[in-house]
Amino acid sequence: MEAPSTLLVEEMCVYSKLEQRMTALEATPVRVSSAELARRWAAVRGEMAERGIDALVVRNDNDWVGGYVRWFSDVPANNGYPRTLVLHRDDLMTLVEVGPFDGREMLGGKDDYHRGVGERLTAPAFAPIAYTHTYDGELVAAILGRRGYRTVGLVAPNAQAKGFLGPLDAALAGKARIVDATDFVDAIKTVKSAEEIAFIRATAALQDAAFAKAVETIRPGLRDVDVVAAAWHEAQILGSEQGVILGGSAPLGAPSRFVGRHQQGRRINSGDHLTLLIEVNGPGGYYGELARTIVLGRASAELADGFAATRELQAATLAQMKPGAACADISAAHDAAMAARSLPLERRVYSHGQGYDMVERPLIRGDEPGVLVAGTCLAVHPQFETGRVFAVICDNYIIGAAGPGECLHRTEKKIFEVA
Questions:
Q1: pLDDT, tens digit, for every residue of 268-293?
Q2: May I ask the CATH architecture of the domain 6-189?
Q3: Is the pTM for the entire model greater than 0.90?
Q4: Second label for 295, Cα 20 to 30 Å away, from 181, 302, 343, 393?
Q5: If DSSP codes are grouped into helix, strand and coil, which group holds residue 376?
Q6: What is the DSSP letter of 344?
């Protein structure tokens, strides 16, 4: 067979790249609007100009608690594979991600999938392969150095790998100042636009449907994972991409705790109960949380009393959630309410922001220095365990000008008893 000509090979490569791009676009059913992305870029670049920052470096390797790159680009990082964006103050973004050595595409801001990106660079860097840890950092360092930037902002630098930051520190030493830009990016990212709130409402509806499928599915003889898998299937066909569904069954009189897939092999018996926490994202990639308890029979009085307490605690927290309220003060009031009921104090985070990250600022906790602002999406999930009961409730709310609006979830705030 005659070998194809060089020209034909080049034409085939161009067509293949075009086909891949079209496929990526057509296969992405839900995207935020270009106007929404432009709003974000403009807000951040405005702050960069105020602070004299020439470029911002953003890097994530997952989209559970790695939502920065998706917020800037509408494309998530997944499965431990790093994805880095350099947001130039006066130019299109540069994208660095896993791919072949010396990979380079000049997109010029015209690629409909990688919106706002001028140049895409690749290197085959992988977390388990130690000698590759510096590859993407070296690419970013070369970009920053070539442009002669004097001030570079890093988003969440303390969460970055040493192998990534090392080349940046070495290349910029004595030439540029590196600053932590996390706080001002968080302040912008926390306040949700009308478009984002619509996506979050869709996530809550998806989670309601997933929980309803679990209630419909559960019966004696099934394993915990069978119920969880039914809920997961419903969530994914409705548009979820990532997240977790936690839950393990137990007899009444023993706590039904949140556990992951590794511990979901127990077989459910008549009279048992199962507490589910649905922490999956929805169309567009926004996270929410829903938790309720299902009983195969009648709930015990102590389980019912425990749930009633968490519902009261949730309502008490919501009553304090007004713009300007200090998060640490809300947490302290919750601690006082727990102590008044002789319940253990919260040592975790019982309420927090959500968006592209499963957990984002603000935290309702004593170490959170911030205050609530309108437009924030918050999960509110007080819980406690006594040794015989694990009691919890979880729902999402948007903070409005006067406080939280209506509950985003439509699932009844009750224990679900299944005959």
A1: 999 999 999 999 999 999 999 999 99
A2: 3-Layer(aba) Sandwich (3.40)
A3: yes
A4: 343
A5: coil
A6: P
